Amino acid sequence: MSMEITPVKKGEEVHFHNPVIDFFEAVGGEDGMQKLMYSFYDKIYESDIAHFFPQDEDEFHKIKVKNTKFFIQICGGPKVYENEAKDMDLNEFMIRLHDDFSITEKSRIEWLGTIREALNELQGVDIKLIEDFWNYLENFSKLTVNSFSDGSTYYAAYTQVKEDK
Ligand code: HEM
């Protein structure tokens, strides 16, 4: 299965489309998404980006729950994250939420590598659907990178985000 990572370029337009609902259905709906995201977050705990996340178990658990809700909704499932997004577009809200953390390309690659491990453990899901989900993650994650190797910061404007339908 091809789950490649292409480099982020500061200030570039990022094209992406939200995952197709077929992926959500194929993983097993809300329960399946929870399994996938809990598995991902358990791996995050063991990863090089663990320090970004709360070390307190209860706080970490809360992030797991919210993260699961976001992915249920962004994949076309029930709107269980709606209240968190404070009336903002879901993707715009998600970009701004990451502004609070200094995210580099290296951290993005670790994040993607970690979720790729969880995706590789899925059984019985059509590769094409996994790739579609991956494309969302790979592109969208570029918008969370705000700290660059030359020491500069850059916070992606929502206007440079192109949602391809
Ligand atoms: C496709 C890209 C990404 C998506 C869709 C995504 C999604 C999310 C979601 C849904 C949450 C929980 C939001 C909430 O509290 O309601 C979250 C939190 C977070 N994400 Fe991401 N994320 C992405 C990329 C990244 C990357 C590359 C990093 C790199 C380190 C990262 C670091 C974090 C951190 C540190 C938190 C918050 C933890 C806290 O509140 O203490 N994320 N993300």
Give an overview in words:
The protein has helices at 21-27, 29-45, 57-74, 90-98, 105-120, 127-140, and strands at residues 14-16, 161-163. It is mainly alpha-helical and 165 residues long. The chain has a single domain, classed as Globins (Globin-like, Orthogonal Bundle). The protein has a two-stranded parallel ribbon. The model has no long low-confidence stretch (mean pLDDT 94). It binds protoporphyrin IX containing FE. Protoporphyrin IX containing FE is lined by residues 49, 52-54, 63, 66-67, 70, 84, 94, 97-98, 101, 103, 107-108, 111, 137, 140-141, 144.
- CATH homologous superfamily? Globins
Structural class determined from secondary elements: mainly alpha
CATH class: Mainly Alpha
| Total DSSP helices | 6
Write the H/E string, N to C: EHHHHHHE
Describe the global form: globular
Percentage beta strand: under 5%
Low-confidence stretches: none
How many runs of DSSP E, i.e. beta strands? Answer: 2
Quaternary assembly: single chain
What is the annotated CATH architecture? Answer: Orthogonal Bundle
List descriptors.
single chain, mainly alpha, two-stranded parallel ribbon, 6 helices, 2 strands, 4% strand, binds protoporphyrin IX containing FE
Short description:
The protein is mainly alpha-helical and 165 residues long. It contains 6 helices and 2 strands, in the order βααααααβ.
